[in-house]
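Entry 14. Ran structure prediction on the chain below.
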Amino acid sequence: MLDDDQKSLFMKWLAEHGASVMKVARAYAYTNEECQDLAQEILLQAWLSLPKFEGKASAATWFYRVALHTAMNWHKKDKPRRSKQQPLIEVHTLAPEASNSAELAQHRDTVEQLYKAIHQLPKADTALVLLYLGNLSYREMADVLGISESNVGVKLNRAKKALSELMDGQSHGT
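Output, structure tokens:
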């Protein structure tokens, strides 16, 4: 692939799938600075991996795969330093349009609890939940994670149950 073609394709895919990069970075980073650093690392790895793209998966699946693998490797390498930090929950979601301030505050609290719960999941489950929240199909999730569709269903059900229990525990002040 020529450099101009590669740059053009990368910029197109970044515009279409860049939100997945930030979603993954927020789930694996504890501070805003770490989130930005991880997002940059993901983009660098995506750029370096682009010449190896064989077209066997969709661009969305490929972008998620690169993002998740980079984030999981980054998380493993950086674990000792980050174990002393507290998570920073930064809520970048669209609030319901016709909401009053009480509804908006409730929405933000719920999203904050969700991210806190996601941070408590095993990292493989975190990846699966992020793909689910990204509205990927079971087939696409299976492609990204390298597991079967039926395994996606089983693992996703377990992750949802764990999230539900974590969210329920948080709402009761534990």
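Residues 3-28 form the longest helix (26 residues). Will compare against last week's run tomorrow.
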